[in-house]
Design goal:
The structure is a single chain. It is built from 16 helices and no strands. By secondary structure, it is mostly helical. It has one domain. The chain is globular, with a radius of gyration of 18 Å. The model has no long low-confidence stretch (mean pLDDT 83).
């Protein structure tokens, strides 16, 4: 690809058409696992009180997480200018919450959420598809790092290798099992129902880091593995949409349908 073409693509898209990030965020299956991992880590984050401040998270935890996913997908698949507008909208929403509370969301909390998007993008794709190369992992980091820079998030790592070190540090420093954790899991159970709640926790076992799994006492043996193998087979006969409707409540049918890139 010549330099002129590369510059044209960079000016047109926030995420290149051939980027692994589009493959990851273009499949509903992968996004559901990103959703599962983020739901676990959100519950442990020391700054989760910010999400409780608005009342949206405990009132509708699934909707709150779906909105995060929706914004991320809009950024991944929009043209460059539309992606910037979406990022700026996220920044504006956070600024409004800060103004309402009269306090600032900690810089490390912003980094934590960004790091979740990077980590669970990689982990979820590898659970469902294949191992990613180091170059592909670096691509995931680069895309979300640019998103973070646009948001004005401070002290982001310079590259994927540095991110690995900082990610581990953030996990150890910024996660704790608290009363918010216990309450949020009660809300997951309430909004999902027992069977779906069980499947959520099984998916979490498959994708979360060891430290997260330990704090939440999730166990180490994912009973979902045989189910996952069957689930992959259903994609070959186009039955995976039916299974997604079984896994998630009917209230989110449209969001479930829109998870695939062709729903954009």
């Amino acid at each position: 690809m010549d330099t002129l073409t590369s510059k044209n693509i960079a000016a047109t898209y926030f995420v290149r058409p051939d980027s692994i990030v589009r493959k990851i965020w273009g499949k509903g299956d992968t996004i559901l696992f990103i959703f599962a991992g983020a739901s676990a880590e959100f519950a442990l984050n020391k700054a989760v009180d910010w999400l409780y401040f608005t009342g949206r998270l405990p009132a509708d935890p699934l909707g709150r997480l779906f909105s995060t996913v929706t914004y991320a997908r809009e950024i991944v698949f929009s043209d460059y200018q539309q992606a910037l507008l979406a990022i700026d909208k996220i920044t504006g929403i956070h600024a409004a919450v800060e103004a309402s509370r009269g306090d600032k969301i900690p810089d490390w909390a912003y980094r934590d959420v960004l790091f979740m998007l990077i980590d669970y993008s990689i982990r979820s794709f590898e659970v469902l598809e294949r191992q990613l190369s180091e170059a592909e992992k670096a691509d995931v980091f680069e895309v979300f790092s640019r998103m973070g820079n646009r948001m004005g998030i401070k002290d982001l790592p310079d590259n994927y290798k540095d991110w690995l070190v900082m990610r581990e540090q953030h996990l150890l420093q910024n996660l704790i099992k608290s009363n918010f954790t216990i309450d949020l899991y009660k809300q997951y159970k309430k909004h999902l129902g027992l069977p779906r709640y069980f499947m959520l926790k099984q998916a979490q076992i498959l994708v979360v880091p060891d430290y997260v799994r330990k704090l939440l006492s999730l166990g180490r043996v994912p009973l979902l593995k045989p189910v996952l193998a069957a689930y992959k087979l259903t994609r070959l006969i186009k039955a995976d949409q039916l299974l997604r409707n079984i896994i998630l409540p009917k209230a989110y049918k449209k969001q479930i349908k829109d998870l695939d890139a062709d729903g954009i």
